[in-house]
Write a structure and sequence with these properties.
It is a single chain. The chain has 14 helices and two strands. By secondary structure, it is an all-alpha fold. The chain has a domain at 37-249. The chain has a two-stranded antiparallel sheet with strand order 1-2.
Amino acid sequence: MNVKQFVNKAIYLISVPLAVGLFMELLVYSQTGGHLISSVLDLRNLVRDLGVTAVIAFALSLNLGSGRFDLSLGAQRLVATIIGGNIAVSLGFNGIGLLIMAILMGLLAGFGVGMVFSVFRIPPVILGLGMAMIYESLAFAGSDGKGLQLFGVPNIEMLVDPNFTLLVLGLGTLFVFILFTFTKFRYEMQAMRGSQKIAKTSGINVFRHVVICYTLAGGLVAISGVFSASFTGALAPMLGMTSNSAVIAMTFPMFLGTYLARRTNIAVGILSASLTIKLFGIGMVALKISNSLNTVINMLVFIGFLAFLANEKIPALRRRERARIKEAKAKRLELENVLL
């Protein structure tokens, strides 16, 4: 890739959140007289939400990109943060130690789901439902229903530092960038997206690849769980599949990031998409729109975007079809003139 291509891709990625941010700034200013980001607290909240959103979207892209919707990701996030976090607190670890312990628990939780899928060949959706209920119960029982409490815990202040959040987000983005650009995993993922049967025939160990996807996804969602717990001071256990709501809400930035990644890497595409959606959400809050109406608007935009993805190739197909028909009619007329 030459310098010109790199600059064009960078402009493309920056222009999407920039355009949305400018639009929301103008809308907020015209309606309220205020600004989209009016204080340091708003900026801190943006960094916090961006970190949580992007990391979960990274995790979703590992399985959802190959047609597997892991409904246990929210429960993996819960059990990794609560169990791993409580172990770290009991051992007196600082913020970095707590984060590492949660990631290790997340990797273990994801590995468990991947191994069950590979051994028993359970459909991903059904497997996700079952494993989600198991992990939610483990998080609840393992903490005696208290979850993870970080109020008053010493030496973890760095977890709420926006600079630390940006550092972890940068490392996570770099990891996903390298994974999808310079490793064998990239080619296996592309083959799996086309056809798992053909990928297996070509020599790819499909189930090893699946285990890796589930394992890495578990580690990534654990990072988001630690961020959420540190920002709110606690993470409560959940039952009845409610833990997955935080993950399902991030499907929009994942799909938008995948679309933007057509001209670049999935990592920076998702990061750009996450920033775009967070700026849009901040604008909704600044306009004093209620949470319920905000959710409705976001889902309508999401559905509209999915409809666009489903139909974006239809105009080109129709143009080609009209061209073929025109060419066939011309050929027929030519043959008729020859015969006459």
